[in-house]
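Intended use. Records like the one below are meant for learning the mapping from a protein sequence to its folded structure. Do not use them to infer anything beyond what is encoded.
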Amino acid sequence: MRKQILFALGAVVVVIGIVIGWYLVTQRHVGRLVAQGKRANILVLGLDKAGNKRRSDTMMLLSVSPSKDVVLISIPRDLRVKLDDGNFHKLNAAYATGGATQARKAVANLLGVNVPFYITLDYAGFEHLVDKLGGVTITVDQAMKYDDESANPPLHIDIKPGAQTFDGKTALDYVRYRGDTGDLGRIGRQQKLLAAILQKGFQNKDYGSVRKLVRAINPYLHTNLSLVDLYDLAKIMHGVDMQHIQMATIPGTPVTIGDISFLEPQVVGMERMIAHLIRGTDILTSSDVTVAVFNGNGARMVASRTADYLRARDFKVNKVANAETFGYDKTYIIALTDTTKAQILQAALPQSTDAVIVSPGKLATHYKALLPYIPDGTDVLLIAGKGFDINE
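Structure written out for the chain above:
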């Protein structure tokens, strides 16, 4: 009897062990990508090779949510960023000097979002992917011809215009070609080809075929995602409508510093893009704020000078006039719509102005007197009070 009990207990322990083991193996990473309903950001790097060093020739942020909201943001490799050595470099130097860890850190610092995951794919893997799909069909806008004997191996690109089906090598030539439009032109072609790959590889196949494709290209990937993670990612991509995949490119301004050409990140545009696409919010800037400016202290031309000051900082000024009295004891910002817009105006004024944000009710008598002169669509009123002046 005792032996039977021990055997039964042993069997239970074994079963529990098997169940726990199965859970750990199959569920360990389930939900890691989209844990607790959160969006997951993955840095996708396409690698070339220069001598013994690999560089990130293509950089994209793939951002996915459990609700199958998919965002693909291309990141120009020539963006000027500060790396761990404290110096400014082109962004693609991050991978060459510090691998995927530094590349993820650089992109996270640039965009202001957490980037815990990465996937790298080299040229051979890219060619294999396209060939595995049986090629992809692309319409080429104009002839693409380029020769570089100094490349290792020598690079020869010769693609005719028109609709055609690319094999892996031709697809690689297509995304490597720079032409007159430089890196931004390359990014446009990369997005076009990627859309074709997603359409053929994920949208037009059953999920079983998608899993087979993932297994086929997995040996070519270097990533901190497990195979289960990749299946989860593939399932999201398989289930999303191509029309709902949002693609964008980080904006930059061409600059030359020390004979080196960079793209200087357009910070405001970039922050608004990330806020809208990744965080699901919108960032307000001065260009979103419409101001009516009133002279409330009697100083000559103070309202006009203030309006010029604000317009130079991208505010929209729709009214410049005298207030109903010059007896305002301080400068007031009256918030008519979003208080955030009043705060943006307050932050843009010289600190010496000491402008106070109030609601219309706080200055009810004054507001009632000014109301007939306030145009529709005004967000804030700026009333220049005692001691206020703009000398710029």
